[in-house]
Design brief:
GO terms for molecular function: diaminopimelate decarboxylase activity. Pfam families: Orn_DAP_Arg_deC. It comes from Butyricicoccus porcorum. The chain is α/β, with parallel strands linked by helices and 400 residues long. It has two domains: 151 residues, Lyase, Ornithine Decarboxylase, Chain A, domain 1, CATH 2.40.37; 215 residues, TIM Barrel. The strands form two sheets. Strands 1, 10, 11, 12, 13, 14, 15, 16 and 17 form a nine-stranded mixed sheet that branches. α4 packs parallel to α5 and α9 runs parallel beside α10. The protein is elongated and about 70 Å long. Bound molecules: pyridoxal-5'-phosphate. Pyridoxal-5'-phosphate (PLP) binds next to α11.
Length: 400
């Protein structure tokens, strides 16, 4: 199978014989692509150089720390969702800043968190009141997450922190009811995170809402964090518009602008190699069972939901042979999707899913006793190296 398919998800495999490249890997396994990470890093560094903004890796999307040294030269640090990610960022990208946002911090974790984090962002005035002075005394930069109440995503309520009744971020009404001069005095910055896989037009709409609701506060702050969800490294992303918005905000309010994308850092920088275990026919449907599971290894396929790109395959009906690809688990809905192939699928065939570096390895589970896929690295020189392998003990140790 010679790769002529240079659409972005497989750009990293361009010119390689994919069948041969992955022939000896144990399946299922992830393969992280160093060259694609570098390419993403260069794009993100360009934005920072042209605007003076600071970009962080949101580790919840990609926390394969052996690759942090690859991204580190292009980024200003890491963003964490809590104690463990903050520690990971501090340990594995020690030259960078560590920022943390959590919906609510725990008393027993807070002293340790102070050892790792440089910026601590609180979700509510009450959390700011409970922990803010302690964090300030420890020399931290303090932020509050705001909710500009501006939804720019349709159909993805689970990814919309601006949905009515949201628990994420402080609305202007909540701010007015609770932010005393004393609490205000603790704050160094504001943080918002409202986007998901979006372009700069959605950011512009959101920024307008942020300015309308919180503009009077911004000039008292030293930074603003635009959160994640900026699909900056996608081919059609409007980088010039992003840069205009960063510069506009910087100049209007005299603030440092932070961005903390997860997806954009590792977009299209990984593959999931899997093998066909069985091919069935049920009426007019041809289910094929793979040795990977959507529920365990690509949970966003079910949760988001989305359809991952599959190397050499088309949408249902495009090629002569269409199959419904699913996992070996008991879950009826453990289905990746319907894909078509030029030739019939057979037991033992290998399939390669694209864009598998984000929200995958860090979200894996062992439901049904499914093994955790090994993780390999495709180095920039196109040689392969195993990063980690898993076995029965990894399954059992979590259970008792
Ligand atoms: C999820 C999240 C991010 C990263 O989002 P991406 O969609 O992966 O870019 C950044 N910051 C916060 C607070 C988040 O919750």
């Amino acid at each position: 199978m010679q790769n002529k398919d240079i659409r972005p998800p497989f750009a990293g495999l361009s010119g390689l014989d994919v069948t041969q490249l992955f022939a000896d890997l144990p399946t299922p396994c992830y393969v992280l692509d160093e060259a694609q990470l570098l390419q993403n890093g260069k794009i993100l560094r360009g934005v920072q150089q042209r605007t003076g903004c600071r970009i962080l890796l949101a580790q919840k999307a990609f926390s394969n720390f052996p690759l942090y040294p690859v991204l580190a030269p292009y980024l200003c640090g890491t963003e964490a969702s809590g104690l463990y990610e903050a520690r990971l960022g501090k340990e594995e990208m020690p030259q960078g800043e560590v920022h943390v946002f959590c919906g609510a911090y725990r008393e027993r974790e807070f002293p340790e968190l102070l050892q790792y984090a440089d910026h601590i962002v609180f979700n509510s005035p009450r959390q700011l009141k409970k922990f803010g002075a302690r964090a300030k005394d420890a020399g931290k930069s303090i932020g509050l997450r705001i909710n500009p109440e501006c939804s720019t995503q349709d159909g993805h309520e689970i990814y919309d922190p601006c949905a009515p009744g949201s628990r994420l971020g402080t609305t202007r009404a909540q701010w007015d009811a609770a932010i005393t001069p004393e609490l205000f005095g603790l704050l160094d910055g504001l943080h918002f995170h409202t986007l998901c896989e979006q372009n700069a037009d959605a950011l512009e709409t959101t920024l307008d809402a942020v300015e309308q609701k919180f503009g009077d506060i911004l000039s008292h702050m030293s930074w603003i964090n635009f959160g994640g969800g900026h699909h900056i490294t996608r081919r059609d992303y409007d980088i010039r518009r992003l840069e205009r918005l960063i510069v506009r905000t910087r100049d209007r309010y005299g603030v440092t602008v932070y961005l903390e994308p997860g997806e954009a850092c590792a977009l299209n920088a990984g593959y999931l190699v899997t093998e066909v275990l069985d091919v069935l026919q049920n009426g007019t449907t041809y289910p094929a069972i793979l040795d990977m599971s959507a529920a365990c290894h690509t949970p966003d396929v079910i949760e988001m939901p989305y359809r991952p790109p599959l190397y050499g395959a088309g949408d249902a009906g495009v090629h002569a042979h269409t199959y419904r690809l699913g996992g070996p688990t008991c879950l009826a809905g453990d289905i990746i999707g319907d894909y078509s192939f030029p030739a019939p699928l057979r037991e033992g065939d290998r399939l390669v899913f694209g864009d598998m570096a984000i929200y995958t390895t860090c979200k894996n589970n062992t439901f049904n006793g499914m093994p955790l896929p090994d993780i390999w690295l495709l180095r920039a020189d196109r040689t392969l190296k195993q990063l980690v392998s898993f076995g029965y003990d990894d399954f059992k140790r979590r259970l008792g």
